[in-house]
Hints:
Layout: H1 2-9, E1 19-23, H2 34-42, E2 47-51, E3 55-57, E4 63-70, E5 73-81, H3 86-102, E6 109-113, H4 119-122, E7 129-134, H5 148-158, E8 161-164, H6 167-173, E9 180-182, H7 189-203, E10 214-220, E11 223-229
Parallel strand pairs: 1-2, 1-6, 2-5, 3-5, 6-7, 7-8, 8-9
Antiparallel strand pairs: 4-5, 10-11
Amino acid sequence: xxxxxxxxxxxxxxxxxxxxxxxxxxxxxxxxxxxxxxxSIASKTQKILYFEEPAFEEVPEAFLxxxxxxxxxxxxxxxxxxxxxxxxxxxxxRKLLDRLLASVPQGRLTLWYYTPMxxxxxxxxxxxVCVYDCMDELSAFKNAPAELVQMERRLFQRxxxxxxxxxxxxxxxxxxxxxxxxxxxxxxxxxxxxARGRARILxxxxxxxxxxxxxxxxxxxxSTSTWWCGRHVACLT
Length: 237
């Protein structure tokens, strides 16, 4: 297992780079949203280690699976044996995390949390900066862990700075930390701005046949989900 971790990190973290270690409840390859937006920008100046929630497979022992999604972003997934109980899962992740960081060149370390539940196996880490990016009210989600509210309080005590994914979250949590700031999610301006030119062309010719995909969002318990609707639209109005 140690050899596997050394293989993960030996050629992926330069000696002089700063490291941002992110703990997230979201799979990197699930939906490209806030964590990917923020960390892709951060990866221009530092190495990103994206530590996901564990996956359970038919394996004899726990190990850390790595995937370089870019030259400076490495997604790390703890792989645990099927049947691992909650306490053993926490213990295994702590060991994998310690071995990982032992192989990372010493330098500036930033801890970036999207889920307070990661404190169960990372609360012993020492870092230069600790950030809590609160993108959702996770305690309102269906089947949220009972201890999530308590773990969030601990994270507020530990964090140097807190960001919220919107103004409503900021208003709800502003009294919980001295350095908390609203940091609403946005869009990729360069990408979506391209559509404005196309819209002007279509609007000048109402008879121009086209197919338009509608972009829809639905918010449930503070979480925004996105779908594409393939409904045919005769013209733009």
